[in-house]
Amino acid sequence: MRILILGGDGYLGWPTALHLSRRGHEVVVVDNLVRRDYDSEMGVGSLVPIARIERRVRTWHAVSGLHVELAVGDLTDAAFVLRTIEAYRPDTIVHFAEQRSAPYSMIDREHAVYTQVNNVVGTLNLLYAMAEVDPSIHLVKLGTMGEYGSPNIDIEEGFIEITHRGRTDVLPYPKQPGSFYHLSKVHDSHNIMFACRTWGLRSTDLNQGIVYGQETPETSLHPDLATRFDYDAVFGTVLNRFCVQAVVGHPLTVYGAGGQTRGMLDIRDTLACVELACLNPPEHGEYRVFNQFTESFSVLQLARIVREVYPGPVEIEHIDDPRVEQEEHYYRAAHTKLLDLGLVPHLLDRQAISDLLGVVGRHRRRVDTGAIRPTVQWRRTASTLVTAAPRTPGTSAA
Amino acid sequence: MRILILGGDGYLGWPTALHLSRRGHEVVVVDNLVRRDYDSEMGVGSLVPIARIERRVRTWHAVSGLHVELAVGDLTDAAFVLRTIEAYRPDTIVHFAEQRSAPYSMIDREHAVYTQVNNVVGTLNLLYAMAEVDPSIHLVKLGTMGEYGSPNIDIEEGFIEITHRGRTDVLPYPKQPGSFYHLSKVHDSHNIMFACRTWGLRSTDLNQGIVYGQETPETSLHPDLATRFDYDAVFGTVLNRFCVQAVVGHPLTVYGAGGQTRGMLDIRDTLACVELACLNPPEHGEYRVFNQFTESFSVLQLARIVREVYPGPVEIEHIDDPRVEQEEHYYRAAHTKLLDLGLVPHLLDRQAISDLLGVVGRHRRRVDTGAIRPTVQWRRTASTLVTAAPRTPGTSAA
Question: CB neighbours of B251 closer than 8 A, spacing ≥ 6?
Fold first, then answer.
């Protein structure tokens, strides 16, 4: 199968590219490399050093004998998108290529507009190019469990059967996203659903939970193949952050009561889920949604697990929640479709946490503790960040 | 009450501005005048001649003794939005300022992207400026009944109580919009709901049906005060188009079976509904939705009503539906909230049709019959229009 990995230079895109390459697929990494620019803008870098993309690809070839192609460009450049799809004629396009941080989207107006325009226009350009070049291409799109928010009823996988005043229909599950980033994913979902209905495209929308972990069988083969690991309050996800905090002796920063419950998954399960989606495409014209997570935890539960596993003393500190969200709520979300396709989850056990703590321990000297506490306040329209240099979001330093 | 009318130079914005001015409010018209550029792009103009905006405002003063202020600028220019809200400090902002044609948004990729960026970014800039200047400003936002699509259950006003697996919650009504334009309104709705929850803004989202009519008590006072009347297949709404077709002896073009049922309202009721929303603001932090229409008709019913009322012979022609939509479907939508506030509807009777036919009769020599048949095909990613000159969407000819 020929697969384009859009956003193939990112935290999950890169290990996904390697995984699919090793599984025998022809892989093309497409990326504008902007994630590296966010590092300069935030004034903080990946905990684990990452190689330049050209070196990553060269080393992968040296280590595995396999070729991964590279196309550098931006999805908001419609001509580039069309040219790339025409050039490679993929069977499947895996689309990670979006600004993916909720706090980043909430920094100020510029970052909110950047996030929505970047994500929505990139995906629109992709939908048009697919419809023009080959509507049978399968789009595997990364969405987020955060599209649903935390309703007081069970969350289903994309659609819900509603009986109302004596009539019944299956309708898109109502969305209550909690940041301009999460909103951009909701906008995408609606646009993709429409494109499937109107042009007969087919797509799998992976509503992914929060990913933890850094090592995969492929990225562990050589230091040049490592993927990034973010621990800062803007790009770091919760469990990764807690592990860094434990190792450097910083209190684990739980936002508010910590009852916020979220679906989670191991980075290796992301790879397996994406592959399962690719290998089992939907019908032509079908838009389907898989909830991509394996277990649910509250933030406070996660903090306690890390405290329990970490060999030294760990303090848990409840700080004011910088977000506007429910700190205690009902949460039960379906996630059977990927299991039905054969997913065998890596559950969050002591070993998984120990492995993560090991990664952090090896790079602890690179931790900038000044980047750990949240700086972006949802209730404000503009938050001041300590950054390397004030810049327009998403642009290269050059 | 001081009210900004964003999009106050348009089909509905202008008569709304006059209506609110005559009712004693301080009115400021804000517009980038782009609707006039779409005319050049489409190579077709309003059936009823319209005066330049400066002349409209001058004549209104001469006729009524009342001042309407004018601020020309673009909502995608964040500095302009902030400056304007700071300068006028309105109690209420009525927001018509979006690209509002479904076929226009479906012309090609450029027009789809233009529509979504223009509408979504304009509204985002507005939300940020309101939150920064004064979160108590009431945003009255024009949405569309088309956000809901045509589900097989009753449509409620914005939210629906769902009982699922033994639990109950009130959630946003699921959306199934039918064009990139309608999608842009769904995106707006989600963004506005989030801004109300996060920043304590308050907003009324008016999910409006299809408007017909051209004359209001104020616009009839002088020819310079007339509002535009579109009959072309891109910007003309269905009943207005049918009246033009009857008068010029063109068959009434029913798309497909004609069972597409939609909520409709008289232009004078739009004015009354907007005023009712302004006078009865929601609580701080509240996002509420009113379904703004008075009656439902199928497209075929409308064609038959026009045929019945028009004194000459009228042919009805079923043509291939250029849209992707259900040609027969269940349709029942709640619309009690505005009635509860006191709306007294102008229903679609013979007189209303006769008045409309009268307007068309007086300007029939201005009809370009070449603009009547649909040119934009939903199933294609690009449709060729016969336009005055190929241009970038939404830019001035200058």
Answer: B245, B314, B315, B316, B317
pLDDT in tens, B175-186: 999 999 999 999
Residue B181 designated active-site: yes
Name chain A contacts of B169, Cβ cutoff 8 Å.
Answer: 151-153
Told to judge if A144 belongs to the known catalytic residues of this protein, a careful annotator would answer yes
Contacting B residues, span 92-121, partner chain A, CB-CB under 8 Å? 109, 112-113, 116-117, 120-121
Nearest CA among B2, B4, B8, B96 for reference residue B60: B8
Among B216, B249, B210, B243, CA closest to B309 = B243
Give Cβ neighbours of residue B349 (< 8 Å, ≥ 6 apart): none
Read off the amino acid at residue B78: A
Residue A261 structure tokens? 């419950």
A377–B contact, CB cutoff 8 A? no
Distance CA A23, CA A44 (A): 34
Select from B1, B9, B6 the least CA-distant residue to B26.
B1
List b or e across A99-109, with b for residues whose CB sees 16 or more CB atoms inside 10 angstroms. Answer: bbbbbbbbbbb
Strand residues in A185-260 grouped as ranges (E): 202-208, 210-212, 252-255
* Of A192, A210, A189, the residue nearest A200 (C-alpha): A192
Is residue A185 part of the annotated active site? The answer reads yes
Beta-carbon separation of B194 and A172 below 8 A: no
Minimal-distance CA residue of chain A relative to B172: A174
Q: If you measure CA to CA, which chain A residue comes closest to B377?
A: A198
- State how beta strands A202-208 and B92-95 pair: unpaired
- For residue B387, pLDDT beyond 70: no
B392 in A contact zone (CB under 8 Å) = no
- Is residue B81 within a helix (H) or strand (E), and if so which, with residue range? helix B78-88
Can you tell me the distance from the alpha carbon of B395 to that of B34, in angstroms, rounded to the nearest whole number?
7
User: Mean pLDDT for chain B?
Assistant: 96
Q: Report the percentage of chain B scoring pLDDT > 90.
A: 96
In sequence order, the 6+-apart residues with CB closer than 8 A to the CB of A41 are A387, A388, A389, A391, A393
Query: Which residues in chain A have their CB less than 8 angstroms from residue B179's CB?
Result: 194
Integer Cα distance of B44 and B40 in angstroms: 7
Cβ-Cβ contacts under 8 Å, A177 against chain B: 190, 194
The model's pLDDT over B184-223, given as tens digits with 9 standing for 90+, comes to 999 999 999 999 999 999 999 999 999 999 999 999 999 9
Phi and psi at B287, nearest 5°, equal: -115, 120
- A224: nearest Cα among A390, A385, A58, A66: A58
Taking only the tens place, the pLDDT of each residue in B322-356 is 999 999 999 999 999 999 999 999 999 999 999 99
- Contact present, B132 and B82 (Cβ < 8 Å): yes
Q: Does B128 touch chain A (CB under 8 A)?
A: yes
pTM exceeds 0.90, yes or no: yes
Strand partners, B340: none
For residues A289 and A233, give the distance between their C-alpha atoms in angstroms, rounded to a whole number. 29
Spans in chain A with pLDDT lower than 70: 386-392, 394-398
Residues of B in contact with A199 (CB under 8 A): 379, 381
Q: Residue B169 and residue A152: Cβ atoms within 8 Å?
A: yes
CA distance B137 to B261: 35
SS3 A211: strand
Tens of pLDDT, residue by residue over B83-92, are 999 999 999 9
In this structure, how many other beta carbons lie within 10 angstroms of the beta carbon of residue A279?
14
Give the per-residue SS3 of B378-389.
CCCCCCCCCCCC
CB contact under 8 A, B190 and A187: yes
Which pairing describes strands A261-266 and A295-298: parallel, antiparallel, or unpaired? Answer: antiparallel
Q: In what order do the strands lie in the sheet with B2-6?
A: B68-72, B26-31, B2-6, B92-95, B138-144, B202-208, B287-292
